[in-house]
Each structure stands twice: as C-alpha cells, then as structure tokens.
Amino acid sequence: MNKLKSCISFVAAAVTVCVGFGVLANTGLRDETTGVRDYTVYAADNNENASVVYMTTEITPEALVKIYDRLGFEPEGNVAVKMSTGEPPNSNYLRPELIGDLVEKVDGTIVECNTAYGGRRASTAAHKQVIEDHGLNAISKNGVADIMDENGSMTIPVPAPASGTSTITEDYVGAHLANYDSLISLAHFKGHAMAGYSGAIKNMSIGIGSSEGKCWIHSAGTSHTSPWGGNQDRFLESMGDATSAVVNFMGGKVVYINVMNRLSVDCDCDGNPAEPDMHDIGILASYDPVALDQACLDLIYAQKDGDGKSLVERIESRNGLHTLEHAAQIGIGSREYHLVDIDNEPTPRPQANMTYTDGVLTISNLVGDAKLIHASYKDGALSGLEITEAANGTTNVETRNGDKFMLWSAVGEMLPLSTPVTVETGTYNEDNKSKILITYFSRAGENWQVGNVEKGNTAVIADYINEKVDADVFEITPVDPYPESYNETLTRVQSERDNDERPGFNGEIENFDQYDTVFLGYPIWYGGLPMIMYTFLEKYDMSGKTVIPFSTHGGSGWGSTKSELSTLCPDAEFADGFSTAGTNARSAQNAVNSWLEGLGY
User: Fold this and answer.
1) Which of 215, 240, 435, 484 lies 20 to 30 Å (CA to CA) from residue 303?
2) Which pairing describes strands 517-523 and 546-553: parallel, antiparallel, or unpaired?
3) Cα dihedral 315→211→252→63 (10° resolution)
4) Left, alpha or beta for 331 (phi > 0: left; psi -120 to 50: alpha)?
5) What DSSP assignment string belongs to 114-129?
6) What CATH number does residue 267 fall under?
7) What is the pLDDT of residues 417-432, one digit of tens each?
8) Are residues 155 and 240 in the same domain?
9) 146 - beta bridge partners?
10) What is the pLDDT of residues 368-416, one digit of tens each?
C-alpha cells in the first residue's frame, strides 16, 4: 500500500459515519438459546475512531472482487495471497472457482506453510500434491503456489506492544515470506478445534508460521517441535503477537478478507469437518484484522433460533474471544468498527473540483458536507495529517513538495469526491518547523545476552529514529566511562544508585530552549533510570516540551522509569514511547519505524 493509500485507509476509519447492518445494533447473546456467557457487540457507528469493515451478503467471485476493490488497496511488488489449502479429503477450503478472479486480478501467488500435526500437508512433497489436487496451482501466479517453509523458517521480531505484554517476542515464519512485498489475507472464517474460531488473526499467525512456527505459537514460545500441551490463553495471545510480527515485517502492506461460508465448527485443517448448522453469511473485508474478526463473531452471535449454536459453543469452550482481547490490547487493531453494507450503498455524490497553485487551494462544485484531508510529507515519508471541514472557495495553505490534498465525503458512502491534488512546489517556511532533539545515553562493551558490542543497544535504536526523523542528536557520554566488563559495570551502577550519585557527562547542548520535542533514550538499569539521566534531566528543563522516551532492557520492560521521568519532568508532555529488549535492538528497525509512523513521523 503506498503512502497515499495508507493515509486514505486511516482517514476512512477516522472521519466516516458508516451505514451499518441493523441486526447488530442492539443484539446481545441469547442465553436461553446458547447457554453461554453474555456477549458484547462491538459495532459502533457513533464512534468516529472505530475501524471500517465492509460487508456483502453475496458469496460469488464477482462479490469477492467487488469488496476487494472497495478497500482501495494498491498492492506493491510481489503479492502473496494467504489462504488455507485445505486438508483432504473433504475440508471446506475456499474453492478456486470462488477466489480465482481475485487472485488473477492482483497477480497474486497463493502461499501456505506446512502443518505441524501430521496429515497430508505435513511434508512439502505431499502438500504440493494436495495443492495440485485442489486446483490452486492453476489460479496462482506462474501456475505454482508457494509453500513458504519449503526451505525452512526465518525469525522475525514481535514489535513492542502498544500496551500490555507480548507472550512471545519472536515469530518463526516460512522463509519465503521475504520474497513478498504485499499480502492479502484471504481467510475462510469458521470454527477451530484449538483456537475456537479461525479468521484473519489465525490466518496471519498460525497460517504464516512455518511448521516450527506453528509449534512455537501453540506452545506460547516453549517448543520448536511440538504444538501440544501449551497453556490455552497463552496460545491465543501468541497468535496475536505473531500477527503483529507479520504486519510489522510487511510494513503494513496487508489487507484482510474473511469469507463466511460453510461455517463448520471445524477448521480447514480437518479433512472431515462437521457439517455446518447455520447458513452462509457473506464476505467481510477491512484494513484492521481485529475489527474484521470481531465483526464476523458479532454476526455469528447475532443469529437467532439456535442457528450456529454449536459454533458459539466451540468458541466459548476454547475462550476464543481472548484472542481479540489480547490483539486489541497490544495495538494490532480496534474491536470497535463501522459495518458498511456495500450491497446497499447510497448513490455516489457528484464530483467536485480541487486545484492547487502557489499556496492557494481552490474547491468548486462541492455539494454537501465533506472533509478536506491534508497529508503532509517530509523526505518522502508521511509526517502529518490534518482533517478539516471542506467548503467551496479558496484557502491559503502552507505545503511541502509532495504534500497531498484529498476531498472525501463525511457521510455513509465514504467515497472520494475529487481527484487528489499533489503539491509540486511547496510554500512551507522551514524557519517555522518544529525543532526536534534526539538525546540518549548508551553503553557499549559487554552487554547482557548480547555479547561485546561497539555500539550500545540504545544507541542502535537512536540511529533508527534518526533515519526517520529530521532532528539534532546529542549523545550523553559520561566523563568517567563505564567499564567494558558487564559485571564491573553492575557493581558501579549499584554503587551510584545506593549513594544517589550524579555522574557527570561531556559537552553542552546549544540553545536547548529551541527544541519543542525531545526523544529521550536510555537503558533500563536495575529496573530504573541510570543515574547519569538524573544528572542530565536536572540540568536541562523539559517544561513545555514533548518528551518521547525510548529504552532498551534485559526483560524488565519500562521498569520504574516512566514514573521517574514524570517526577523529573513534571511540566513536560509525554508521548507514547518505545521499549525493547537489548537482545532485539539490532532487529528492531521495522518496529521502530511502525512506532514512529504511529506518532506521525
């Protein structure tokens, strides 16, 4: 997805009040029918920050292409279409007659990984025969589907969660995933013997996991060879963590489609699944896998007269909703969503005209309410998003080269109302730009579980930030350098803490008052701030500045450092920070980039 499409998908979720399916408006779980716990429906048409989920009740090749087109996704490079190839002889996998037109449209390669539980798809040779027998090679790019772990696994990191704690910190995926630039998750939504249900999140985690990775997720990071016997809730959480890792690895160039047909309690990994006891529902699609799975579950739970009772009981018996609870907590997506019925959308509004010349934006022929979106770019990267009410007339605007203006409807159809405008000659005054400082303390030498390094773990993260953010950099270097030996450093650090010392540092920051944003980096030592950070923060007043912390640690997370920073910088405003284990620092660039993009950089 290019930067413009990334922006559009975000705006669509942020500003639109969508047309929803009335059946979900006030639906709760009918205890007398299902005999299971109360259920909360997450359709939220009054929440403008909820994610957008599109739906059609048609399950045809044409409807599948239509709902994909409605997303406005523009895949780049090699496109992977991840689906289950289906366990023989009678599983309910998505048939090539249904999905072939979509796969051809995106010039996609069908991708899958081997199983970890035996069956006809546990070895590459046998799995290839299943793929051929099921007609999937015929619709895949170049006539060949890709078993991504044919040449083994590769390890990708699980990014630092937005909140809460990840159960696993790394994910083992098919090594061929590195060959793809964009990913379409095409999942058959149904029940599952272990997870309760199977949708977008399972397709992105277990589905993309190599045979080894499937064991790793099922065991919550305790086994590379066996998927059996792990803690159930930790397994469900690990699926969310693995999904986060894959999305991060793909740079967000992922879109999700769930097909709700043949709704058995059993997964497509079961060659002889139970017959469905409910009717087909439709096809749903979103940029948000959490919202998508939540919408599918809401539709399952909304069925009347016992329809689908066995599937609900399967979900409940496996605590399947916990997958979404954890996935939302760690920041993969939102459980709240707008459900948009693409079968009954309003008639598109007339197109308006929008032009830009020498700092003046002109809108004409606009009918009705609309939103003007100004996407700001710096050095080719999205740096800001401003959403205002649109109106006919002229407006003076400050821009950089590459900025984009988009005019979108502010009502249910959620459609663009004019051709986007790209700025070729900007008017932005560089003298007025915000001043940003990256300052950090880091220690090289012998590091815990990392070995001897020439550059400290926190310094590595600072470099990643500096690659994305135009900022000045000041490294906090101690007057008395810390020992190369890890154990000797521990002794000195403990002494500094016990004696409340203030180690000195070299150099000065010229005109510190000019900075309004400070990225502040440090390692976590004994669960807290290094004492040299006290020296620094007692010298440089952060009042009125936005402080963005980043840190590396040996397993403690943030420790007590956030509360220490609040005490040391009582009048600063804090933005969401980034923390990772020191062992992950050198593989954290994608995670850092995702975090910075979330902050608007």
Assistant:
1) 240
2) parallel
3) -60
4) left
5) --SS-STTSSHHHHHH
6) 3.40.50
7) 888 888 887 765 554 4
8) yes
9) 111
10) 888 999 988 765 667 677 889 999 999 998 887 788 899 988 644 557 8
